[in-house]
Structure formats: structure tokens, C-alpha cells
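sorry for the late reply, my laptop died twice this morning and i had to redo everyting from scratch. anyway the thing you sent over, i finally got around to it. pasting the sequence first so we're on the same page, its 424 residues, then the predicted structure underneath. double check i copied it right bc i was rushing
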Amino acid sequence: MILEELHDLFLEHPKVCTDTRKITQDCLFFALKGPNFNGNKFADQALEKGASYAIIDEESFKTSERYIVVENVLETLQQLATFHRNHCNAKVVALTGSNGKTTTKELINQVLSAKYETIATQGNLNNHIGVPLTLLSISESTEIAIVEMGANHQGEIAFLGQLAQPDFGYITNFGKAHLEGFGGVEGVIKGKSELYKDLIERDKSIFLNADDPIQLEKLGGHIKKYGFSQDDPQYYNIKLLSSHPFVVFEFEGIQVNTRLVGEYNFPNCCAAVTIGKYFNVEPETIKTSIENYIPQNNRSQLMKQNGFQIVLDAYNANPTSMEAALKNFSKTDLEHKSCILGDMFELGEDAAKEHQYIADLARELGFNDVLLVGENFFETDSKFQKFREFEALQDFLTSRPPKKGGLLIKGSRGMALERVLEVL
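ok and here's the structure:
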């Protein structure tokens, strides 16, 4: 079946599924393969559960005309997504970066959806499978699509850009994330900047944090850009008023009281304001939209529990975001401050150095109590209580919980430190 025919079929059945546990009636099932599974083996199950057609790449599994055999299911899914993106009239705003991607994407969507018909990446489905699924969620009525792009190695952002072909792009920042795959910080800068390179080559527009010298250097002066924090007609002046405990800022004389913890969330808000203003969303609407956004999914969530005022930031961590979280927490007006910090993943040969840096920083900032958990933190030269495994931390907390007061919980997703809440 040629791509145009498959797209016609998709328009008749505009729902795509790659997981038989999430089959919806009349969807198209794409039988993806992975290191430990073969989706072709589940195609019959998908049809039984209500899928209209199953796209497979092994002829032996075809038993009826409801099976569509292609050369490679993943590549077909990606090609279909790009074909559909070009078929629709929606403008595509793409964003990437080391930290804050998902929060920024949610804020941008919150602002733009107040005026436009929008779709946005669900959760963090931002890879070579998630981006195509996002593009395929664009409908004829969609006016703006906000597409998050994640990467852990060179060339990945360039590839995702080829799929999405964005009209606008934004990079949150360049930080010490996925150092193992990118080959160090310079590799991160090069890899993330692939988004800008693509936009420049296609004469598209970039939204820019003008306080970031790296981004200014990468842009030069030959691209349409819109940003914040500079006295220039194409930038919007946005002022941070406070960040304790929540970010409060001002633009055009309007004060915005967010429910986002930490100064590190201020640039995320600035991006939402800047992009909202570019798309002519009314300033008061921007204010209301941002104020109504409540972070979820363990991302900088402020909560109170059993005498603790907790900053739960357990969705992910890298040295840049860990440093920002610690410095911000140290500035909070709390009498007793404790931290539970979990390992940061994908740092490669820099792991030992970066974990030692964070342990030293925690000591310098003078917190009352610090507990470190994970293989890397356990190996640091530190006088803090250290635990190689979460179960050891759990036992310790059960018998010796921290003193009531402020508590920062932060670690990489694989550490699942939200489990601390159950212990406390």
C-alpha cells in the first residue's frame, strides 16, 4: 500500500495505537518491534479488541485483508506522520532542551489553547515514536501543534525535526543532561542546536531566551527571532518579582502569580508569555492561563504532608537541574531544611565527578539534613547519610524520619523517589 492510500485510510480511522492494552474502537494498530517484543504477534489481538486494521511487517502474520503489510512498521508510522503534518494546516511549534521541556510545553499549550484549537505532546512522548503519534493527533480543526522533542544522542533532534518540520522552535536551555550519549556538554549544545539549524535553513522563526549567551551565539543575526529579557523591539521585557515559594513575575504592568516552585521555572513562564504574545493572545488571558496551571507528575510539586512542606521534583534529574533545585530550596524561608537526593542517570564517565559536585554543593548550602541514595551518591566522599538502595533509605526513614519542616525530594526517574511520600 502506498503512503497516500494509507493516509486516506487513516483519515477514515484517525486514531493510532501501538499498544494492545490501549486499543480504541476503529483505530489503526501499528505493530512496532522492540528489543523484547514483536508487535506482529499481537496484531490479531488488536483486531479482536476493536482495531479496524493492523499494520504489520511480517507477511506470515497476515490472515485477512485487515492486515496491511509494509516493509517496516516504525518507518511507515514516521512517514505517515510527516505526510499528515503536511496535509493539515496547523502551525507547528517545536521545543527541546535539557531541562523544563515538559513544563514549558504545558504552559505554552495552556496559553495558546485559550484562543486557538491546539494539540500538544501527551506526557513526555517526545521520541522517535512519540513525535509521530503527536503529529497524527493533529486534526483538520487544529490551528497550532506544540511538539516536544527529547534526545540523548547526536542527530536525534535533527531527525525529529525532519518528521515534524516545525514553523517555530524554542530551546529551553543547554544543561548537563544525557552526557553519556551526547559526549559531554559541548555535545549537548551541538545536539540540541540541531533544532535551530533546521529552522535557520528553512527560514523559519525561533523563540529565544536572550539571557542565554550560548543561544545568542548559536543564532548569529540572520534569523527571525522573538524572545525575552532584552531591550529590543523583537524581545519582550519580563521581570521576575519573586520565586519563594512560587514564581511571581510581571509583564506590561501585569503581575502573574504562578503555582510553579523555583526561579528555574521563570524562563519557562517567559517562553509561554513570549509565544502567547506572538500569537496575539491577550495579556490578561496569558496571565489567567499561567496562573491556572498546576504542575503534576512529580515535577516541582509543592505539597504539605504530616508537618512537612515538600518540594517533590522526582520526575527527573541531571546536574544542571539538581543544582538549580538545591540553590532555590536553600533560599526558601523555612526554619529546617532537609533534602533527599537520588542518583542522576546517563552521565557516563562524568557520573562520579557530577555526583561529588552535587554532594559538595549540598554541604556548602548548609542544609540541616541531607540523605543521599543510589549507587553513585553512595560512592561520594561525603559525611551525609548514604544508602546504596532505596530499601535501605526506606528502613532509615521509618525509624528516623527527618525533622518536620521543608523537604526537597529530587532524583532521576529511575530512582522513583516519590515513594518517599508513602514512607513519610
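The chain has a mean pLDDT of 92.
thats about all i looked at so far, will dig more tmrw
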